Each structure stands twice: as structure tokens, then as C-alpha cells.
């Protein structure tokens, strides 16, 4: 299946629009104060964002498949060549506890290959959107929304991954559950600085914002965690792969893909060699 550049551009603009809109709905729910516990707020946010995204996607691109974290898997997607891969609320715990590091992911894979992605970061007023492949341009679009109190804290243009880097590696890690092997990895690669953060999408965005240099994760990821973030990272010149250096594939029967490596191309070989040396379990 080939998507022409005009169709890809239209799909990308649509993905960015609905990711931003879902993010605004999430902020509205959180600001309403109607939900008494972080768990209740997170559960409502998950379902509200998913319902909005599902309606938007089926209304505009009914022939495509959809894979979402919050909806029962429709196996008919395996017969579709174009499949939207969606995480309506990545970082539910962070969202429910009033933190900023949560995201909305809207990605599209064609024949198992990631083609476009939008990662909305509503609490900081940024949405990253990009497409990759022959019909795509090399640009990561950063859409900006006003958020009181955050002026100047977050960039409005991404940092290229294929640019120069100096100083110790900055490794973005989970805020709540960093495994022991990550500590060994950080030490072995030269005393990397650990940068804690929630949400896969927000972690990848930290690289594009110039606040980190590398992200490695071993167990428990699903396609909806990685599809859209992978696209924006690759479009910005970062290397993205699995721990063995192979590419991710999407729209598989089992959406669990577990692992991801995102880093600068200049650091890729050293990162993969160090991962092999520490033998993550």
C-alpha cells in the first residue's frame, strides 16, 4: 500500500489535531475537580480520550484498522494494511496525580512499518508530529498551546538527534520503577546522568527537547507505547531500534513488543554494546 505525499500530509495534520484535542479534553477533566481519587481520574481520562479518538478515526478513515490500549482488540486489523495505533493516555498515573509528564499517542503503521505519529503533551502545551518514509518531509512539527506558568520552559523547536553532543550521556528513566540493570548500564556507559520521567511519549520528547540523550526500556511495552514516539524520534534524526539492533514491526497479532532503544546515531553502537554487556533481565 502506497500513501501519496498529499494523503500522508492530510493524515498527519488530522493525527496532530485529534491528539491535541484529546489532550485538551484530558486537561478539562482534570481541572474540573469532579473525580475524588487519582485512580478515578485516570480511569475516566483513559476512557474519555479513547472514545474521542475512536470516533474521530472511524469517522474519517473507516477502512483503516485501529489498535488502542483502551479498547478490546479487533483482530480484523490484521487484515488491514493501514492501522492506527493509539494510546489515549500514556502515563495514567502521572495524569491522575496532577503531574505534567503524560501524553496522547496517535500513530499510523502501513504494512507493519510506522509511517506517521503525533505525540501530544497537553500539560506543557506541545504536540510533536511527523511522518517518515519516501512520501514524507524531514520535518518534526511542534504545535504550541498556551499553558500558564510554562512560558520559555519547553522549546518550540526540536533538537536534531544527528547533531553534536558533549558531556556525559543523559539517560531518561522511569520515575517510579527503574530496574537495577539500568543503574549498571548508566555506570558502564560512563556515568550517565539519570533523568526521571513518566510516559514513554514524554521520555522520547525529552530527547527532542534537548533534555536527555538516550532512552532504553526492556520489558512490558506495547505497540501503542512506541509507534508514535518512534516516528517523531526518527524524523528528528534519532536512531530507534530493539536491543538487538533490529527495527520494530507493528500491527502484529501480539502487540507486546517489550523493548525500545532511542538515542543519537553517533551513540547507537556504544549503547547496544553496553546493553549486551549488562545483560538486562
Structure description:
With about 280 residues, the protein is an alpha/beta fold. Helices cover about 35% and strands about 25% of the residues. Helix 1 runs antiparallel to helix 2 (about 40-60), helix 4 packs across helix 7 and helix 5 packs parallel to helix 6. The longest helix is centred in the N-terminal third of the chain and has 28 residues, at about 5-30. It is globular and about 50 Å long. It starts with a helix and ends with a helix. The model has no long low-confidence stretch (mean pLDDT about 95).
In short:
By secondary structure, the protein is α/β, with parallel strands linked by helices. The chain contains 7 helices and 11 strands.
Question: Which descriptors apply to this entry?
Answer:
281 residues; alpha/beta; 6-stranded mixed β-sheet; 5-stranded mixed β-sheet; 11 strands; 35% helix; 25% strand; globular
What are the low-pLDDT stretches, counting only 5+ consecutive residues below 50? Answer: none
* Distance between the amino and carboxyl termini: 38 Å
Major sheet = 6 strands, mixed
Number of helices: 7
Q: Which percent band covers the strand fraction?
A: 15-25%
Strand tally: 11
The whole-angstrom Rg is 18 Å
Nearest-integer average pLDDT: 94
Question: What is the string of helix and strand elements?
Answer: HHEEHEEEEEHEHEHEEH
Which of globular, elongated, flat, extended, rod-shaped describes the shape? globular
Q: Tell me the strand order in the biggest sheet.
A: 1-2-3-4-5-6
Helix content: 25-40%
